[in-house]
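Late entry, evening session. Most of the bench is empty. Finally got around to the prediction I had been postponing all week. Sequence below, unchanged from the version circulated by S.P.
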Amino acid sequence: MSQNSKKVLINKAIMPVAGFGTRFLPATKAQPKEMLPVVDKPVIQYLVEQAAEAGIEEIIFVTGRGKRAIEDHFDYSFELSKTLVEKNKLELVDKVTAIEHLAKFSYVRQSIPLGDGQAINCASHLVHEEPVLVMFGDTLYDAAESPVTQLLRAYGLCKGPVVGLAEVHPEEVSKFGVMGGELVDNGLYKINRFVEKPPLNEAPSNLVAVGLYIITPEVLEILATMKKGSSGEIRLADAFDVLLSQGRPLYGLKLEGEWLDTGDKFGLIKANIKLGLKNAEVGPKLKELIKGLAK
């Protein structure tokens, strides 16, 4: 895809973070999975930083019970700042106060977990009929260029909803939403099928949705009218099916970089290792540890 595509201004992002994080129990019994650390920051902060660096000005969190820690993390903490100043740890003051200034934050509640589509719909009244970035709380990337920036550039080309994609091993396709379509540009696909968690023999490809999207008002309109499907939930994938049945375009972008899916235990450990090796404070020690374990 051309690096010279005109940047399209999208101001808002929706981050659904209301899930229970059952794959990390008991660690997530009283802590949101999005607040689990990768090196020295919670996963959700990496995502917010990526969005802010790409020009997103407002972030709408769709939360649920037990997610108060996310709100506290992006809020000002007078007591913490005061303590750090008194102890002359001024560099840490800068780190923690910078968090609250990354974006304008809003919070809406998903009272009952009825699917990712319903979570997005909970925030639709704050979007005001404009395209919006959607980032799920476990989509971390190790990439030279932010995946958000890549997705925004793709939207500038196609002016339609875009799904962030990654290539996975065929045996893993049944865990994800899988797309079928044709390549129209470098890494950019026009999608004609979108199948949620298909068995391998029914998967149209091994390109899967990573939990990063740009959706348009048309998608939000469909979500607003949808009823619970056979899964008992309102799914974004089902909204894409409706969009395609109406003859409207849907695109997918194979993102450059390595997808670090922090939604499972191994993915979180891998993210800590990959990003830990790049961390100036712990990287050298971690590298020596890995060499020692390899022996």
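Two things to note before I forget:
The two ends are 42 Å apart (CA to CA).
The chain has ten helices and 13 strands.
Will write this up properly tomorrow.
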